[in-house]
């Protein structure tokens, strides 16, 4: 396709973060965005992206992606069941047909691949130890990409991302519902990144990502989950959530929520400096100061 001299970038999985990334990159690049819904075309065009119709669950619908762009930003999550990420495998099969067009691929994974470390620090060299099916699918995606990229001369950057937050992505409803948190002695460390900061890091990886590199895209904070809820409650002038022992809490929350609450790790971010993009919000507390209703 004609690129009019601009670098061509394809975004796979253009949700909230993808839209933020597309808006930034469209200023200097020709940005394509894969979507399975025609109803999203207008929204994608509004941020400067060119919509491409296709569904990662339907490989025959992906033919338009072959040879389309030099850089691919893969933000799509795996399907909801199984231990393999079939969506990533479908994507790689079609990209391999593009006559070596792709030169760089950025994959946004999750820090969930590390599993539970009982509060210990983990870094990019810590072996993965996924304990949920969701995390196992992410490890499968990473493994597939790490095999595929060097075989096709592609520079691969994997960004492992923790809990994403923004003004409209805070646990306000959870706090309003009085959903309990764990008592302090049993509480787990949680890790965070603000959504605009994450979008900026993804864009930075397009230009500064080192070959076959894993980077923890987090703020490096060491806040326990219950304390995080308390910070949000204080910022909005709400009552702090009650606390319960894990034995009692497990009985009243969903299995998925419990799987998040029982894994504890402190994710370090020393490699983040490689992307040459300082965080605007180095902590949740720094962000909450900008929106607090209870100064």
UniProtKB/TrEMBL annotation:
Q: Which domain of life is it from?
A: Bacteria
Q: Which GO terms describe its cellular component?
A: cytoplasm
Which part of the chain is the NAD-dependent epimerase/dehydratase domain? Answer: 9-216
One GO molecular function term?
Answer: aldehyde dehydrogenase (NAD+) activity
Q: Which SUPFAM superfamilies does this one have?
A: NAD(P)-binding Rossmann-fold domains
Query: Could you identify this protein by its name?
Result: NAD(P)-dependent oxidoreductase
